[in-house]
Amino acid sequence: MVQYDPAIINQFAESLYLKAEKVVRNYTVRGCFLGLGLGLGLAAVVPEWGTLMAFLAPIGMFGYFGYSAGQSAAFKYKLEAQTALCHAKIEENTRKPV
Question: For the residues 87-98, what does the mean pLDDT come to?
Answer without folding.
Answer: 86
